[in-house]
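User: Structure tokens for both sequences below?

Assistant:
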Amino acid sequence: MCTAAILAKTGKRVLVLEQHYVPGGFTHAFKRKGWSWDVGVHAVGEVTHHSMPGRLLTVLTDNRLQWASLGSVYEEFRWDDGFELDFPDNPEQFIHNLTEPFPDESQAVLDYMQLCREVARSMRGYFGAKVAGPGLGWALEQTLGRKANKYLAQHTRDVLPALTQDPRLQALFVAQWGYYGSPPSRSSFAIQALVTRHFMHGAYYPVGGSQRIAWELLQTVANCDGWTRVVADVDQIVVEHGKAVGVRMSTGEEIRAPTIVSAIGASATVQRLLPESFRERNWSASIASLKPAPAHVCLYIGFKGDIRSAGCSGANKWFLSSWDIEQGEWTISPSKPIGPAPVLYCSFPSLKDPTHDPGPEQRHTGEVVTFVPWECFAPWRDTRWRKRGEDYEAFKARIAEQMLEQFLQKIPALRPMVAYSELSTPLSTDTFCRPVAGSIYGLEPTPERFANPHLRPRSPVGNLYFSGSEVATVGVVGAMMGGVMAALAAGGAPARKLLADAR
């Protein structure tokens, strides 16, 4: 959507094709019985006028997209042993909150903060080099991206001991790894540093709900004589003489255009949309070999009552069972008893949106998220939504029951307020967004991913560009920056001027 808005703003006539009946991917929202939930937007940093992403979004939506702060504390971490720590909206308080329980580790905290800043500064050259074509781009990455490549090549777990030997402080440094879905033994340290830097001045939520992101970006496309088609299922990218010339829809209709941009993820594009002959080429095989980030389940809860009085706020709550920094994915199976999840991430969207009207019944919403293996849901991969069979529904019910009970044990005052709940699984993600293996974040942000020379906006297929998070970094702003890179690669000088004006 960001690519579409930029190209539309620079005079291109743009058609956006969305296979779902609601545009926006993980930025859309859905309703049930009077409640509304977002599906992927829980906290976004760097969206004020002090940051380039925020300034660019202002330009791309003509200032229609507004953001509300989650508060002076945007994240609350709670461990089962009773340890608690809040993540605030300014770096000075963050340093204080970390050093107060670890008074002998103040230098480690300062060193970590400085390292995160260094990583963030190094990324501009790296992403700039990515915009260039494969030949020139690879050469530029060795110069402009040299420093970033050093951080991208390091595993997070290998960096931590040089900062501190305290295992609990190490766990606090990486406590937000759920925002990119890769534990420290596998993740690139650069992504951890970028997440820390991303939220250094707090987190925000779209005023009017997460769907406003899609509505306003796509309104810009419409205002520039573009169009968005929903229930528009692309079956294949049409390639002639080595160049992409259009797309073939599942209905058989062909739509031709001089520029084709795929935002479903580079991996999904090469595995599902390119002709078979292209899927077997070395470059596409190397992309397809990269592992996806974990899948997730989300329990959507509808409340009736004053959930603020129970201890809820706009801040997200993390409940962790142990200090093991590798313990994140919930090991569950249809054939075995389901125990507690090691991590619960809890969000209350109705308290984040200042325009939410709870009404006389005090209707509010909550979401409880955790990571799960895709493999335990894969047997139902070819079934239809809401028609997956009794075994699947029974498995879902057991998961939902465990998650709800575990959540209510953490915040018991909410128990009498629960009026509705519904569970989504990785199969829901697969149905509505179609990533590889139901992954909420696309490709796992490992050193191997960032070392892949073909994950760049300009693909080896002429006229075909990759947009979205897999050419940049994960999350809402990561996807947005992937969109910027695709627009720069496809749009040339006009896109560069638009971006320069936004800076």
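Moving on to the next sequence.
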Amino acid sequence: MTTSVSNDVEVISVQSSTEVARASAKPEVYRIRHTLASRFLVLTVCVAIVLSALAYGTVHYWALSVFNLGALTILCLWVVDGWSIGQLRISKNPLQLPLLGAVLLGILQLLPVRAAADSGLGISLSQSLSLDPNATRLVIVQFVSLFVYFAAVLVFIDTPRRLHLMVRTIMIFGFILAMFGLTQSFTSPTKVYWIRELNQSTAFGPFINRHHFAGYMELTLALPLGLLFAGSVDREKKLLYLFLAGMMGVALFMTTSRGGVISLFAEVLFFVVVTAFWRKDNERTGRRQSRIRRAAVRLGLGAALVIGLVIGVAMIGGGDLPLNRLVDSVNTNDPTTGRAHFWSVTVNMIKAHPVLGTGLGAFGVIYTRFDTRNGMLRLEQAHNDYLQVLSDGGLVGAFLALAFVALLFARAFYRMRTRDPFRRGVALASLGGCLAVLVHSFFDFTLHTTANALLFLVLAALATLNGRVEIVPRRRKRRRSTAIIEDKAVEQPDLNDAVVKVI
């Protein structure tokens, strides 16, 4: 018995598991049609990854407007693609649900559910649950745009070729960005693009905040580094991948971001532990390596990498100057450089609004009400994303964030079980980059920079893509831009998260 379901691009006929077992000798054929609109859509995502970083990390209103315009362009191309093939494709990946939940939470916080209170200055306070409705509206728009990019990657990165394209785009751009940041740090360390002088922050590369540049490097260097640890790189390309990861690691160290350095160590340790103890598919070689021996080798490689980065920083930075700055940034009177006070005030804010929070994006306005000092300091972020999620979204927001992280790790580890070495390496590398940013979020607010949030979601999508990207393409005939693809990587790719047709 066969049932008609919708694959990623076109309606196909899929056999039941019983029929597949009986006819295992005959591989299934999957039809994937790439329209011109879908090609431009993938190009738009790649361009957005690049431009969002170059536009000061997309933290200004003009850059956010361009970023939102890109999301609108993707939606238009998505509709055109659906019109061309006769169906609108959406992904069933459950990782989208927490993001939609965050948007719904923001909308709920905007509802006028309480009576307006007088501030004592003749100004009525907001009637909505959000104490800063304007900021909440901006955050909702940003979340919707990020969700569009994320959902588009889940749907349209649907072949091995497109997966390779996305991975290479991120790696090459990460290397170029690292070289640009290093060059600028030597020639004009206090200016962005050698033009814009900053008074209240320390820039690095095109980013206004050096910590956010470090967060971006954590994401980009994870791909070449993770692919190396996973053994997914050809022997003749290993030195190239190591060079790419090394230069991005040096750029990260040169930012002197303690949170960035700690996150890099966590990233390397994650790769060491996972690749040392995961079960490899040794059917081809017929050999089984000792897990202890493999763990020792991976640990040695990780230690050698860290030592090499430190030596590289010392050489490129002129002696041990960058390392001295890294150590000197720790204040003996307050090692947290004020974060301990920020966190204690944030905890009081959480206690006052425990369930639904103060409103998405409302932290900067509400902070002064709870500040136990003179109340003159306006702090835009809590320098701890976990506390700020609780402050802005309450327990509901925390549950959504926890659900996203739990689903990310569960789905990514499941994808690592594939027999396709490149797919396994991408899943490992992408999850490692996301882990590094999650560690960094204990000390900073890197995900509040749109460029970092976009790349984080792109890597989350790459880590959890279904079995479509594991199929080895072989073109048999071409009719109206239709490519016939035969499965060689697995007997039957996992299409549980395949896109579905919306009539």
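User: Anything stand out in the second?

Assistant: Strands lie at 2-6, 11-15, 29-33, 88-90, 191-192, 196-197, 482-486, 500-502.
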